[in-house]
Amino acid sequence: MLETRLTEAGRETLRLADEQAVRIERRLAEEFAPEERDALPARCVTAIARD
Fold it and tell me: How many CB atoms lie within 10 A of CB 11?
């Protein structure tokens, strides 16, 4: 196993990327009805499994 550690700059970059990803995830979720949101994970797994 190779252990790696982020630098302070790397941790900050990761934090900022996570904040942006959460904002995008929330905006996407707002575009779906509750039933669609509930079905989305299973549909994604099905789509990915086709490969």
Answer: 11
| Percent of the chain clearing pLDDT 90 (strictly above) | 96
Q: Token pair for residue 42?
A: 């299973």
- Where are any strands of DSSP class E within the chain? none
Tokens for 33, please give them: 């009805």
* pTM for this model (two decimals): 0.66
- Whether the per-residue pLDDT at 51 is higher than 90: the answer is no
Cα–Cα dist 45/20, whole Å: 23
Q: Give ∠ CA 40-41-44 in degrees, rounded to 5.
A: 85
State the Cα–Cα distance between residues 42 and 21, nearest whole angstrom.
Answer: 20
- Residue 28 is predicted with a pLDDT of 92
